[in-house]
Amino acid sequence: MWNGIWLQSEGINFKLILRLFKIPFIIFVHNTRFNYMQIKHFFLYVLFSASMYTGYAQATKINNDPAALFKQAKEYFQNNEYSLAYPVFKNLQNPQYGATLNDATIREEIKFYTIACELYLKNAAAASQAAEFISLETTTPLVQMMSFYLAEYLFEQKNYTDALTYYQKAGIDNLSNSQISTLKFHMAYAYFTLQKFNDAKPLFDVIRQIKTDPNYIDANYYYGFICFYEKNYAAALQAFTIIEKDKTYKNIVPFYIAEIYYFQGNYDKALLYAEAALLAGNQYYELPLKQLIGHLYFDKKDYARAKSYLEAYINATPTPNREDVYELAYCYYATGNYQQSITGFKELGGKQDSLAQNSMYLLADAYLKTGQKANARNAFLFCATNNANPTQKQVSIFNYAKLSYELGYFDIAQRELENFINNYPSSPYIQEAKEIQVSVLANTSNYKDALMLFESLPSQSENVKKVYPRILYGRAVELLNDQRVNEANALLVRLLQVPYNESQLPYAYFWLGEIAYRNGNVDAAIQYDNAYLKNPVVLGEVNPINAHYNLGYALLKKEMYSEALSNFQQVAKTISFNPTPVQLDAYIRSGDCYFMNRNYKPALTIYDKVIDMNAKGADYALYQKAIIAGAYNKNSEKINLLQSLIKQYPNSEFASEANFEIANTYMAAENFNAAIPYLQNILKNNDAAALWPKVYLKLGVCTFNLNQNNQSLQNFTQLVSHYPNSPESDEAIEYIRNIFLENHQPDAFVAFMKENGKPVSYSEEDSLTFRSAQLAYDAANFNAAQKGYANYLAKFPDGKYNIEANYFMAEIYLMNKDPQNAFTYYAAVAAKAPNIYAERSVLQCARIAYFDKKDYTTAETYYEQLKQIATQQENKLEAMRGLLRCQYKLQQWKDAVANAQDILNEKGAAEDDRMMANMIVAKNFQSDSALTNAANAYQQVIKLGKSEYSAEAQYRIAQILYLQNQLPAAEKAAFEVIKKYGSYEYWVTDSYLLLGDIYFKENDLFNAEATYKSVAENATIEALKKEAADKLAMVQAAKNKQPKTN
Question: What's the pLDDT at 449?
Answer without folding.
Answer: 82
